[in-house]
Amino acid sequence: MADQRDPRTYSLITVPPNGAVDPEEHIDRRVIENAREFVYIDVPLHRGEGIETVEQTIREEVDSVDDSVLKVTLMAVEDEPPVSDSPPEDDDNGDGPDRVVHERVPVGPIENLGAELGALVTRVSDRRDLLEDEREYQAVEFADVDAAVEERREDIIVTETADLFLEMAMNTDQTADSNITDKAQETVTTVLERESPDALHVDGADAPDTSSEGGTADTAHESVSTAVGGGDEVDSEELLENALEEIND
C-alpha cells in the first residue's frame, strides 16, 4: 500500500505438532530487504497556495528518486483560520464549524516532476477540504470500435488465414490479449505445415480493382505480398517471422 510508511515485512510461522502457535516463540517477522523504495513527501499548503508551492517543496526535499515510488501528500496547514464555503445565510444555522477550504491542485504537473526526478511512478493524495468543482463538462461520446474495424475490413485485401487473426484479435472472450501472440504463431505454423506459403498471400486475380483510387489489382497484390514477406521466393521461416511482426503491429 502506498500509504504504508513502515518497512515491508513478512512473517515466518513455525507450526508445532500440537498446533498451538505462540506468537513470541513461533512467529518470526522479517523485513523485506529488497522491497521497492518509497519516498514520502508531505506538502503543507496555506489557502491560496498551489502547484508552484508543491513543486518547490518537492525539489527542496529530494534531488532524485531513481526507480522509487514517489508518494506526495497535500495537507492543510493546521493553524489556517477557517473559512466556510457555504452561502452567508447558511453560516448561522449552528449545524457545524466552518471548514478550511482549498482550491484543487492539478495532479499532472506533479506526476511530470516525479518522472523528471526519475520516479518509477508518482502517487498524489490530497487530504485537504476542497472547494466544490462547479465547472460544467460536455458529454463525451465514444465511437463503436468494432464497427470501425468492420468498416475498415471492407476496404483492405486479406486472405482467409489473415481473417483468422482478425477474428482472434476482436474476439477477446475466446483469445486473451496476453495469449494472442502465441496463438497467432501456432496458427501460422499450422497453416504453413498444411498449405503452401501462398496461403498467406493475396492472389492478384482475387483482389478487387483499385484503379479508381489511383492503383491496380496488381499493385495491391504487390503491396500485400511485400507486407507479409516479399515475393514467391520467401521461405516459410521468414514468412512466419514477417507475419508475426505484422500481427504485433
Provide a descriptive summary of the structure in words:
The protein is α/β, with parallel strands linked by helices and 249 residues long. The protein folds into two domains: 38-130, no CATH class; 145-248, no CATH class. Helices cover 34% and strands 14% of the residues. The chain has eight helices and seven strands; from the N terminus they run βαββαββαββααααα. It has helices at residues 23-26, 51-61, 108-116, 145-153, 160-170, 180-194, 217-228, 236-248, and strands spanning 9-13, 27-31, 38-45, 69-76, 101-102, 121-126, 129-130. β3, α2 and β4 form a beta-alpha-beta unit. α5 (160-170) packs antiparallel against α6 and α6 runs antiparallel to α8. It is extended and about 75 Å long. Residues 85-96 and 204-232 have low confidence and may be disordered.
Which structural class matches the secondary elements? Answer: alpha/beta
Uncertain runs: 85-96, 204-232
Tell me the number of strands. Answer: 7
Strand content: 5-15%
Whole-number count of domains: 2
> What's the overall average pLDDT, rounded?
75
For the biggest sheet, the summary is: 3 strands, parallel
Apparent shape: extended
The number of helical segments is: 8
Order of helices and strands: EHEEHEEHEEHHHHH
Secondary structure: helix percent: 25-40%
- Tell me the radius of gyration: 31 Å
Distance between the termini: 36 Å
Which strand order does the major sheet show? 3-4-6
